[in-house]
């Protein structure tokens, strides 16, 4: 059987590199899109493609004949203009190229930050209210990317919505960037102990992306059974319950500093991932293991 051909943007990033690895494990032929030569993951079946996915000519070339496209790029830490130019406009360029090329499946790594998680909101499923325009740049732009992909007809689209993504790496927000900020600034060590810390490990996020891209999770006419064929289906990808006491407590313990627990209203609901589980996804990394990995990386 001919292996599926899957294009992955941001293949050298935290999520992208893990998606590439998961695809390689499943025997896929991967076109790993990166901006610099020699930065794509090295694994059997992985072919590096160097270029700008926001360039229509490059995008058309790299998606030609592919079975699936997985988009993972968003410029975290940039201003709203850069986030829109790369995360929204750039993603639409390669998504539209995939539609024009007849690629049957697009898997986009979105975020659970698109949901309104104000204090008292309760649990959040795929039908929950989204953030307003006055939310932060990241949440608003990611919301708008999802909406644009929802309007893009001609292929089956899946919007993966993970919360905080745990897992080691130089670009890891929650294992590297946030701990560094906590270490440098005492004010960042303030948290509300019982506030929900919704999370997923990058390995588990990569697993569902790879299962979708290789057809292990097949399209369906029912969004509770699989992505709607020809439609756009959001799916939350979140692991078990956790709080800021768990995350901030683990980080500050590893750093040898003290947290400050504030008494304020906070969101204490959960990101409901029942749909993903009905699709056959089961997270493998426990909170205990994820936090132990986080602490080991900080201590080393």
| Helical amount | 25-40%
Report the order of strands and helices.
EHEEHEHEHEEHEEHEHEHH
| Residue share in β-strands | 15-25%
What oligomerization state is this entry in? single chain
**Architecture, according to CATH?**
3-Layer(aba) Sandwich
Any idea of the CATH class?
Alpha Beta
Radius of gyration: 19 Å
Structural class by helix and strand composition: alpha/beta
What summary fits the major beta sheet? 7 strands, parallel
CATH domain topology = Rossmann fold
**Global shape:** globular
Count every beta strand, where a strand is a DSSP E run of 2 or more residues.
11
Biggest sheet strand order reads 3-2-1-4-5-6-10
Enumerate how many helices there are, as a single number: 9
Report how far apart the termini are.
44 Å
Task: Write the CATH homologous superfamily.
Answer: NAD(P)-binding Rossmann-like Domain
Compute the average pLDDT: 96
């Amino acid at each position: 059987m001919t292996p599926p051909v899957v294009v992955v943007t941001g293949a050298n990033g935290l999520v992208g590199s893990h998606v590439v690895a998961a695809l390689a494990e499943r025997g896929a032929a991967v076109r790993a899109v990166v901006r610099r030569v020699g930065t794509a993951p090295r694994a059997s079946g992985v072919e590096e493609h160097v270029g700008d996915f926001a360039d229509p000519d490059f995008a058309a070339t790299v998606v030609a004949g592919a079975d699936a496209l997985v988009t993972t790029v968003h410029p975290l830490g940039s201003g709203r203009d850069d986030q829109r130019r790369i995360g929204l406009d750039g993603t639409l360029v390669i998504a539209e190229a995939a539609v024009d090329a007849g690629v049957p499946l697009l898997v986009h790594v979105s975020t659970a930050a698109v949901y309104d998680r104000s204090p008292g909101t309760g649990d959040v499923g795929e039908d929950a209210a989204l953030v307003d325009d006055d939310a932060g740049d990241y949440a608003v732009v990611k919301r708008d990317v999802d909406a644009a992909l929802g309007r893009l007809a001609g292929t089956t689209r899946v919007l993966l919505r993970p919360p905080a993504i745990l897992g080691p790496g130089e670009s890891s927000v929650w294992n590297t960037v946030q701990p560094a900020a906590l270490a440098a600034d005492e004010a960042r060590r303030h948290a509300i102990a019982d506030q929900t810390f919704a999370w997923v490990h990058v390995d588990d996020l990569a697993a569902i992306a790879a299962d979708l891209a290789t057809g292990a999770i097949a399209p369906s006419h029912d969004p509770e059974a699989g992505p709607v064929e020809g439609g756009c289906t959001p799916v939350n990808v979140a692991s078990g319950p956790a709080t800021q006491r768990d995350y901030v407590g683990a980080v500050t313990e590893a750093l040898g500093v003290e947290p400050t627990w504030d008494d304020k209203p906070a969101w204490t609901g959960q990101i409901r991932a029942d749909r993903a589980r009905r699709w056959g996804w089961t997270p493998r990394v426990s909170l205990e293991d994820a936090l132990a990995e986080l602490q080991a990386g900080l201590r080393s």
